[in-house]
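Open question from group meeting: does this chain pack into something compact, or does most of it stay loose? Before anyone orders reagents, we agreed to write out a predicted structure and look at it together. Recording both the input and the output here so the notebook holds the full record.
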Amino acid sequence: MPSSLSIFLDFNLPNSTTWFYFSFLLAVAMFFKFSRFLSVRNLDVVLIFLLVPGFLILQASRPRPTPIEKSPAVQVASLIGHGATATSAAELSGHVAHFSHECGSAIERHQWLWYGYLWLLAGSVLFFCRCIFDLILEQRPALGPNVQIEGMVWLAGALLICLLAVAYKQVERHHLPPLLNGLAEPGTQPAPSQDQTVFAVAYLWHDLAPWAVAVLSFACQLTVVILLVVISWQHFQDVTNGMAAAAFYLLLPYTGLYVGQLQHVLPMALFLGVIVAYRQPTVSGAILGIATAATYFPAFVLPIWLSFYRERGMGRFLGAFLLALAAGFAVIGVTLWANDVLERSIQSALDSAAWQPWRNPEGTAEGFWAGIHWAYRIPVFVLFMSFVAATMFWPAPKNLAHIIALCAAVFISLQWWSAEQGGVYVLWYVPLLLLLIFRPNLQDRVPPEIDPETDWLTGAISWCGQTLRRLARLPEPAEKTPVGSNRRAGSHGSGE
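Structure tokens returned:
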């Protein structure tokens, strides 16, 4: 190929800022209802981009690699040494000015890093309020996207290819930095990976090759997209809005931001299956148990689902949840033991203060609570647990719309008291927010009543009982007859 034609192959992925503006403009064109300017839909389309400036601040404020002789610790030691040997005030002021020039920018970046996490937490509070407000919304107008379903399918496919290119770029550099284009800004470092302190199952992929982790992450992203469409198709009876939610998910900067990080996308790839199977409490309970064993925090929404299935399969839901949870822990534990990391995983969980508000986090922890006394996390945790307990009773009865809003609210608020990067795990709840945005009126979406005559579990238990009786050669239970009928039959017989 002539060298002049290589211009057609000179393709560069956009950086985070470019993707933010591009995706926002495209989302407004596709989903903003210009004919209903003052509508909740329009507010949601704009509000869901609220956290992106916080991520851009974090990206610009992360510590930059510096030579050892220019590190803040060495500079402080040098300033103290020069101060002790300075012969005049002018010489001392010169050393102070040199220290300010070398370390001032690093101190300023650290301060802006805290402001970035403050932005994320403040924005998540607004998301939480939006979820609570959704509980009182009863009438939902049918507002479809501005693009036909064929166009959204095409856009979603193109975005998937772009995300695959992002994953490839990350693998090419043998690490998985959480930057949109897979390339760190000049002189910056990627965010510290906390996968070992988030889930014990993360040890299973910690030693995998980067390309294998990227493939698993991309598969989870694809699973989320498919499940968004299935939920809308099966439970909303509107595949168009399901495709809109899927395209919107791929368009959001958060998806590209963490396309290669499995700990961000794995939880929702599992949890959405619970919503898909909500008409079958046994299946949904088993999926929630597996999700809890793998990623822990879905256990906080257990009260919501128990209230949802009250008098309509709550016992079988809880039983399936506990069995799947025990089986999941057993499989993960045996696998970790076989890889000789079980003890290290348990010790890491016990030593981590990120999810233990009663413990003082290490000085290297990054997040909103860095530099704030650990005791202030305790009242936030108490309020969170109070909200989780309240979801067991309010609202009652619950429908599918309540389930989506409450689960999103719980997943949002649990990051408020996390000591390590609280607020960055946006993909733990963004798919639920998209279902909340595009859902229709779901007041009639409740668990179906269980008919013992046609219920598969009741039939299976009855069949097992009959089989055991046959094996034990026990007599079949006699059918009970009314006492009065026996007496009448006896009196007739004696009269004859």
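Observations to bring back to the group:
Residues 65-77, 174-197, 491-496 have pLDDT under 50 and may be disordered.
Residues 146-438 form one domain.
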